[in-house]
Design goal:
Elements lengths: L1 H13 L22 H9 L3 H14 L20 H9 L6 H102 L19 H24 L5 H38 L2 H11 L6 H9 L2 H4 L1 H12 L8 H29 L3 H24 L15 H26 L6 H8 L1 H5 L1 H31 L4 H11 L4 H21 L3 H43 L8 H51 L5 H42 L20 H13 L1 H6 L2 H23 L6 H18 L5 H13 L10 H4 L7 H8 L10 H8 L5
Helix pairs in contact: 5-7, 6-7, 7-8, 9-13, 11-12, 11-13, 12-13, 12-14, 13-14, 13-15, 14-15, 14-17, 17-18, 17-19, 17-20, 18-20, 18-21, 19-20, 19-21, 20-21, 20-22, 21-22, 22-23, 22-25, 23-26, 25-27, 26-27
């Protein structure tokens, strides 16, 4: 068919110029493989289109010389001289092959339809064939499935049979094994009975035993058999003792087994001793394999406890007395019990390192020799702590009696406590090192704690007693120093002597810092020795309370000593208060003595202020120490922190009371000197100058200048010593007392107008000074004084309007008005009664 189609195609190409063409013949194979519609379409039309393309090419060449002006709008060209040809060209068809192509396309469509029908027919036949084959295949598969199911059933029956046969074989094997085991057990029982009968001979007669029990090469087997016989005999005796003997045979058997048990015990003891002797001999020669063999056999006797204990007990460090003496010399040196804690710490570190190295070496041997090395290590470490370490601690820590404290020259209680802390810390380190080496199931930490139990029971009492001993020694030392200074100063004036004594007995912040350092060291020992938070808090609170008592007592006594200086100065002032009718010589002597008393008072004032300042610094040190070191140890226990805060406030209350009384005495001292200066320096003419035409003096009076100078000098120490509310309260009280004292002082004098100006200048001077107190109420009082001083300056008729804005001071102003020089001559009393009836 293809050949005919190719022939037709070639014939069609030969007749390409003809109008009609032969029918196309398409083949199904043309659509197989890499089918391309463009290629199929090209093969159909290329036979017709080449003639048209050639005609178009010739037409283009024929019109190539036509000018652009002869071009037609549709793209064709016309000849300029031949219009007829142009009209003929328009009547011819532009694409003459259209009819051929249409015929070709129609034929192609028909053939394509025929081909589709052929393909559909073929597809139908294929589907029918496939359906038949599928049905056949399904039938075959069903038959195969039936066959496979049959095979599976056969395999299941076979597997069940195999399993049944296997179980039967296993049962037979178990029966055979059980029978063999019973046979072997029976054989062993026969052997044991035979051996038991040998041991059932006369008591103590071990000469007729089998060679097994005397052959050194079969010691392990003999030991195993002896233990089995012994266990069997003891168990049988136990059963016989429980059951009521019914026949004589039972009693006879029991008596026989008792003989066997006695003989077995004797043999086991002899065998065990023989093995221990062999073990010792091998140990001396360092034959680890022989030692291990003996230890393995001995493990059958009481789980090898005797061998373990025997090995540990024969270590040189437990039996050599020289080792114990060397330990003591290494730790205590040549000083014996007077060795310093630092030297003891170094000695303990060296000794415990040596012990740890020795235990480590023994651990290697124990691991290679004993079947249960952990149990042996437990016994070894326990023996080290209970014997070697305990013996050293007994020499090192001799607990002193609280009723008869050791003297400080020999270290006192503090030396014992420091030794205890060093020994406890180093022993704890040893316990940790031994735990790292290995100590089995031994509670090495608990055992270490038990070594110090007797010391820890009374530890808090010893700590407090030590702090009291240190405090008493420090106070004795300070008193001795003060006594020595007093004796070296010789005989001087009583007032000067009092000042010197007071200055030498001042509170020292360095001493308080030393108290805190003692306490801090004690707290560090508490932290080391007390592991439970509750116990630690109780110890810390007790130790801190000692510090509070010491600081409170020390600063209170210091303040009281400073107060004694103020009291002595007051006594000196009272001693030299004289009446008015005395001779000039006596008055001069009294004035000189009063100056000395004033100097003593000023010195005592400064000394007390220094004491107050150092007291405040000491309390601040204690508070800072509490906040930094004590609080964190008390907070874990409910109520401990608050309780300590209350105790701290209570302890400092005595010092606060002494300070308050002393500050009151300081005010009395200052005011007494102010009054003395005013009485000695103030003259009547200061405020009642004669009217001699001389210009009035606008300077402060001599008394005012002396008083202000004295206050500035003496209060300088108060400004430095006092702080905060204490300073404000003290200066306010002093300012009010000064105000009151000046009012009383000025009541003794008479004022004229020029004297009033002088008084106003004094008040200004006093006011400027007290302004440094930063006390608003005091400033207000002196401002009112300045206003009241105007009553001496203004004319009598102006007094009524002088206090219109300040009615509250009229009463004090009326007292001032009575001091006017013209009070009686101007009849001011009557005028004031009419003007201020409420103040009369």
């Amino acid at each position: 068919m293809k050949d005919s189609r190719d022939g037709i195609k070639s014939d069609r190409r030969a007749k390409s110029s003809s109008v009609s063409s032969l029918p196309l013949i398409l083949d199904i194979d043309d659509f197989k493989g890499d089918f391309s519609f463009d290629a199929l379409f090209g093969n159909l039309v290329n036979e017709l289109l080449p003639s048209f393309q050639e005609d178009e090419t010739d037409s283009s060449e024929g019109h190539g010389n036509i000018s652009g002006s002869d071009a037609l709008p549709n793209g064709h060209f016309r000849a300029p001289s031949d219009a007829a040809k142009f009209a003929q060209g328009l009547s011819d068809p532009l694409f003459p092959e259209v009819d051929k192509l249409l015929s070709l396309f129609k034929d192609s469509c028909k053939e394509l339809v025929d081909l589709r029908k052929q393909i559909d027919g073929r597809l139908y036949n294929v589907k029918k064939e496939v359906s038949a084959q599928d049905s056949k295949h399904r039938k075959t598969l069903a038959e195969l499935e039936k066959g496979v199911d049959g095979l599976f059933e056969s395999f299941a029956r076979l597997d069940s049979r195999i399993s049944s046969v296997g179980q039967t074989a296993a049962k037979i094997g178990d029966h055979l094994q059980s029978a063999d085991s019973q046979r072997e057990t029976a054989s062993q029982t026969i052997e044991l009975i035979k051996y038991l009968m040998e041991f059932n001979s006369s008591p103590g007669d071990l000469m007729e035993l089998s060679p097994l029990f005397s052959d050194d090469s079969r010691v392990a087997e003999a030991a195993s058999i002896a233990q089995k016989l012994r266990s069997f005999a003891e168990e049988d005796i136990g059963r016989q003792s429980i059951a009521v003997p019914m026949v004589v045979g039972n009693a006879t058997a029991s008596r026989g087994l008792e003989v066997a048990v006695a003989n077995l015990q004797e043999y086991c003891n002899e065998l065990e001793n023989r093995l221990l002797s062999r073990f010792d001999a091998a140990s001396q020669k360092r034959e680890l394999s022989t030692m291990a063999e003996c230890a393995k056999i001995l493990s059958q006797f009481n789980r090898g406890t005797s061998a373990m204990q025997h090995y540990v007990a024969t270590r040189p460090m437990f039996i050599d007395v020289e080792v114990m003496n060397a330990d003591t010399r290494l730790v205590l040196g040549d000083h014996g019990l007077q060795a310093s804690p630092s030297n003891v710490a170094r000695g303990l570190s060296s000794l415990f390192k040596e012990i740890t190295d020795t235990v480590r070496k023994e651990a290697a041997t124990i691991t290679a020799v004993f079947p249960s090395p952990n149990e042996v290590m437990s016994i070894l470490v326990q023996r080290v702590l209970e014997q070697r370490v305990t013996a050293l601690l007994d020499r090192l820590l001799v607990k002193p009696s609280l009723m008869n404290l050791p003297p400080l020259e020999e270290g006192g209680l503090l030396l014992y406590l420091r030794m205890l802390a060093v020994a406890y810390e180093k022993t704890q380190e040893l316990a940790r090192d031994l735990r790292a080496v290995g100590c089995g199931d031994l509670d090495v930490e608990g055992l270490t704690e038990s070594l110090f139990s007797s010391h820890k029971d009374e530890y808090p009492e010893h700590e407090r007693a030590s702090l009291r001993q240190l405090y008493q020694a420090k106070m004795a030392e300070l008193r001795a120093e003060n006594q020595q200074i007093s004796e070296s100063s010789g005989t001087i004036g009583r007032s000067r002597g009092a000042s010197v004594a007071s200055s030498q007995q001042q509170i020292s912040v360095t001493v308080v810092t030393e108290f805190v350092r003692w306490n801090e060291e004690a707290i560090s020992r508490c932290t080391l020795l007390a592991s439970q938070p509750t116990t630690l808090a109780a110890h810390v609170k007790a130790v801190f309370t000692c510090l509070l008592d010491q600081v409170s007592q020390y600063i209170t006594e210091g303040l009281e000593r400073a107060r004694d200086g103020l009291t002595e100065a007051a006594a000196l002032r009272e001693r030299f208060v004289l009446g008015t009718s005395v001779s000039r010589r006596v008055a001069a002597a009294a004035a000189s003595a009063a100056e000395a008393a004033a100097a003593a008072g000023e010195s005592s004032f400064r000394s007390f202020m220094v004491a107050v300042q150092r007291c405040g610094s000491s309390v601040a040190i204690v508070q800072q120490y509490f906040g930094n070191s004590i609080s964190r140890l008390l907070l874990p226990v409910d109520g401990a922190h608050a309780s300590s805060c209350e105790e701290m406030a209570t302890a400092m209350s005595s010092a606060e009371a002494a300070a308050y009384k002393g500050l009151q005495q300081c005010i009395e001292t200052v005011m007494a000197e102010v009054e003395r200066l005013l009485s000695a320096e103030q003259k009547a003419t200061d405020y009642k100058s004669p009217d001699d035409g001389i210009a009035p003096d606008h300077r402060p009076t001599s008394a005012c200048t002396r008083v202000v100078a004295y206050l500035s000098r003496v209060l300088e120490s108060a400004f430095t010593a006092l702080e905060g509310l204490n300073k404000q309260a003290f200066l306010t009280e002093l300012g009010n007392r000064l105000h009151k004292g000046l009012l009383n002082h000025w009541q003794k004098y008479t004022f004229n107008p020029s004297g009033g100006l002088r008084l106003k200048r004094d008040i200004t001077e006093y006011g400027e000074f007290v302004r440094s107190f930063n006390a608003p109420s005091v400033d207000e009082n002196f401002e009112l004084l300045g206003i009241m001083a105007n009553v001496f300056i203004v004319a009598p008729e102006s007094l009524a309007t002088l206090f219109e804005g300040s009615p509250g001071i009229r009463k004090d102003a009326q007292r001032f008005i009575q001091l006017r020089e013209d009070y009686k001559s101007a009849k001011l009393a009557a005028k004031l009664s009419s003007l201020w009836p409420s103040s009369s």
